[in-house]
Structures are given as C-alpha cells and as structure tokens.
TrEMBL record:
Belongs to the peroxidase family. Classical plant (class III) peroxidase subfamily. Its EC number is 1.11.1.7. Its cofactor is heme b; Ca(2+). Removal of H(2)O(2), oxidation of toxic reductants, biosynthesis and degradation of lignin, suberization, auxin catabolism, response to environmental stresses such as wounding, pathogen attack and oxidative stress. These functions might be dependent on each isozyme/isoform in each plant tissue. Ca(2+) 2 binds at residues 247, 250, 255. The lineage of its organism: Eukaryota, Viridiplantae, Streptophyta, Embryophyta, Tracheophyta. One of its GO terms (cellular component) is extracellular region. It is found in: Secreted. Disulfide bonds join 40-119, 73-78, 125-323, 204-231. Ca(2+) 1 binds at residues 72, 75, 79, 81, 93. Residues 1-27 form the signal peptide. It catalyses: 2 a phenolic donor + H2O2 = 2 a phenolic radical donor + 2 H2O. This is Peroxidase.
Amino acid sequence: MATFNKPHPYFNLLILLLPIVLHFNLGKSELELNYYSKSCPKAEEIIEQQVAQLYDEHGNTAISWIRNLFHDCIVKSCDASLLLETRNGIVSEKTSQRSFGMRNFKYINTIKSAVEKECPLTVSCADIVALSASVGAFLLGGPLIEMKTGRRDSNQSYVEDVEALIPNHNDSISLVLDRFQSLGIDAEGVVALLGAHSVGRVHCTNLVDRLYPTIDSTLDPEYAQYLKGRCPTPYPDPKGVSYARNDRETPMILDNFYYKNVLNHKGLLMVDQQLVSDPRTLPFVEKMAADNAYFHQQFSRALLLLSEINPLIDDQGEIRKDCRYVNK
C-alpha cells in the first residue's frame, strides 16, 4: 500500500486562501497606457483634438485642465467627483471656497460629448480630466506626459472633505509638504507641481493680505508696488476680475520663470515665497530655476503621481454619460 507524508498543518489553510490570493494578484486591474485601444481606439485622439481646439478658442482652458486634475485627485481619488453638480442630494465640490476662481467646467462636457458620440458610455470623465491636463500642459509649452488611463467615475461628492484635503494658498509650506507626502509625493515633486503657478493668474482676494495694511517684508518692493497697482484695495470684490499674474515674463508658458521669480522675492502667494525659506525645498527651487528641462522632468513625474492617486477601477464607480451628474 502506498504511503503519503502527512500534510503540513497549514496546507488546508493555504488551499482555502489560494482563491483570495489569486484574486488580488491576478484579478486586480491597473491603470495602463492606451487603455481604450480596443474599446474606443480614437478616444485619446478625440480628446486631444477637442482640447487643442478649445485652447485655440480660449487659451486659458489649458490652465483650467491642470488645476482640475489637482483639485480632483487630491480629494480622495482621481475620480471626477469634482465635476458633479449639486443635484439629488449631491452637493458639488465646486461650492467649496477652495474651488474659488475655477472655471471652464462647461467645456469638459464639450469634450465628453465628442467622445460619447464615438463610444457611448466607454470613456470615463476621470480619464478625460487626466488626459486633458496632459494635453493642456503640452500646449502651454510644458512636457509631453504619457498619461495612463482606466479610471472610473465616482458616484458621490466629497465636498465635506475638500477644505481639509486641499491646501490653502496661505498655508505653511510644512503643511503643504506633509499633505502631499501623505499621498506619496516628495518635496521635489511638490516644488515641481507648484511650478504650475508659472501660468495663469491669482485673484486679488487671495493676495491682498500680503499688501495691506503693510507690505509683506519678503516681497520685492518694486514688485509689491506692481501688485498694489493691480489690487488697489484691501477689500476686492470676490466676484470681480481684479487679478495679478504669477509670471509677467511668460504668463502663458509652463516654464521655470516661476522659480527665478521666487528667488527674487517675487512669489505671488505665501506658499510660493516660502519655497525659498525652507531648506527642504530651496535646493530644488535653485535647480529648477537653473534648468528648465529638469523642471519639466520633475513636473512630469509629479503630475503622473498625482494622476494615479487611488483611482477607481474594475467594477468600482461608473462611467458617467454626463460628467455633471451620476447615471440614473
């Protein structure tokens, strides 16, 4: 009669756990390049065309797409929760004070409609947010960033978490670093992401605290007078159009002039200027100010990290038909 060795006491437990192990190792999908190559081969081409056309018509849309990615991903997940409107018990994240100054949301649906026409209920709004940010950065003279796709859309808003999760423009650099590092983005990446302030503008309501009642001592005096000319009252109308640009030299180019400015005490927001007073960030500011290619390299790396924070995948969430509302 054949004899068999007695099985290891943990053998039966291993057999029970094997399906679970296989599920997590083999069944878990991940974001990937060209995710829609079979389900919607023209998806990325359509999004690129739409973003480029909108840029030609409204140049500031490219800046909006980068900011959208930041505001969407840093709150829980890169899941397009930012785009949801207030409706049927959902309160939009756009109602938060942290979303002040954001615009061009209506054009997201322009892009989404073009994609839906080609491939109904296939491409997520979350991927449109990510891909439009990539194309927008490139149109602004920034690096070409290959963005992975495969995200799904949230069916809820996180408005109650927005203020706690999105750093304020007057927060300390320590708080900003801690917040991003909790998401897996290091100090070098934080410095690079703040380089997005190289483009666009800041409403006066966000910077008058540095001008009134007295001028912040860290501001270059000549630059401070320019800012007071742009923002002549300590009580600007939040709904007004008074603003100042971060970068007067190349205000619509994503380049390293931002770092040259902060080194010359011409940082527009408190968080900008603090980059040069903190030993954890100053070396990166100096290196990016001296090397635009290095800035672009680190900006690409950091934006990719940001874009892949806790994405919804597989059967999580949904693919919204309209980016403004959950599916019925």
